[in-house]
Automatic annotation (TrEMBL):
Residues 1-115 form the VOC domain. It comes from Sphingobacterium oryzagri. Keywords: Antibiotic resistance. Belongs to the bleomycin resistance protein family. SUPFAM superfamilies: Glyoxalase/Bleomycin resistance protein/Dihydroxybiphenyl dioxygenase. This is Bleomycin resistance protein. Pfam families: Glyoxalase. PROSITE patterns: VOC. It comes from the Bacteria. InterPro entries: Bleomycin-R (IPR000335), Glyas_Bleomycin-R_OHBP_Dase (IPR029068), Glyas_Fos-R_dOase_dom (IPR004360), VOC_core (IPR037523).
Length: 116
């Protein structure tokens, strides 16, 4: 029986990844194993592996995160000057989700969705 999925995303610079996820998005650090970083917010864990040669323009890492209370979280991001993806502003989608997206420092796409 499957119980949980934990995405593993590439990072070029651990300090920049920590600054974005911990300082800007409010995640906490679970563990730091040198070239491997684990963060958590609420019930969401994300793991990062070092990939110094990553070209962000060629990175297609993506995560879809379901959530509650999206309007408050979205406003918090705006209040903290987090850049929302230009093609991913807060919108109601035909598949019954309210969604928005942003990019991390390595161009990993984070899409947040909440059922409407």
């Amino acid at each position: 029986m499957l119980t949980t999925i934990i995405p593993k995303l590439p990072m070029r610079d651990k300090a920049a990844t920590k600054a974005f996820y911990i300082d800007r998005l409010g995640f906490t650090e679970i563990a730091d194993y040198g070239d491997y970083l684990l963060v958590r917010k609420d019930h969401i864990d994300i793991h990062f592996f070092m990939f110094k040669a990553l070209d962000p323009a060629q990175n297609y890492g993506q995560v879809y995160i379901r959530m509650n209370d999206m309007d408050a979280f979205y406003q918090e991001l705006l209040d903290n000057n987090i850049t929302i993806h230009p093609n991913g502003p807060l919108a109601i989608k035909p598949w019954g989700q309210q969604e928005f997206a942003l990019l991390d420092p390595d161009n990993n796409l984070l899409t947040f969705g909440e059922p409407i």
